[in-house]
Prior knowledge:
Helix 3 packs across helix 6 and helix 4 crosses helix 6. The chain contains six helices and seven strands, in the order E-H-E-E-H-H-E-E-H-E-H-E-H. By secondary structure, the chain is α+β, with helices and mostly antiparallel strands.
Amino acid sequence: KHDLVIIEDDPYYYLQFGEYRPVGKTADAEDRYSDLPGVTALIPSLLSMDTEGRVIRLDSFSKILAPGLRCGWITAPKYMTDKIQFHNETSVQQPAGLSQAIVSKLINEHWGHEGWERHLVQIQRDYAMRRDRFVELCQKYLKGKVEFTVPSAGMFLWFRLLLSEELQGKEGVMQEVFESMIANHVLLVPGHLFSPLGATPEVLSKPFVRAAFSYASIDDFETAITRLAKALEPFTG
């Protein structure tokens, strides 16, 4: 109808790992994570549903291989990739040649398609275990302090802080929350950074933060979440 081109920027696409599996229910981790999607059971991408050549899909090795590579790939109709290549040649010229060579050598000459899929399944298993442990601890220590939806992909939890009634909408309250986090040696990403409206007073007062379960070791999760619980104590009901 509007003759639009869709850019599908999806760096977490291969980090799909299904529903939350309570850690205590099954002792055998292999049984608990035997139904991971790999590459054959992922949710459909917009590109896979494109019948008119309108989707430019962006993927990244940063989340599934090594962040320091700074390397990814584009999938799109040839008439689009030709134009992207022309722009590339007159701007950055090329991504780092060393990174491209490492990825190409690893996937094409060492792993092959089967090895690449095994790697993705292992990554999905690792992140599923991280997600499950992180959620278990959040349910234990943050009950009544935050609300969140358990993710089935990615590496983050999006928290809505359950501020006490007198603090809801109070100007500057989220700055006070972050100062309390710093004092307790834990830090989450403020929600206003993800708003298209920018750092307006209304957005700055919204009680949302993002937590990552990708960086810290699983052994450190409990320390981090108990610190967060202590930091939120003065602000939640």
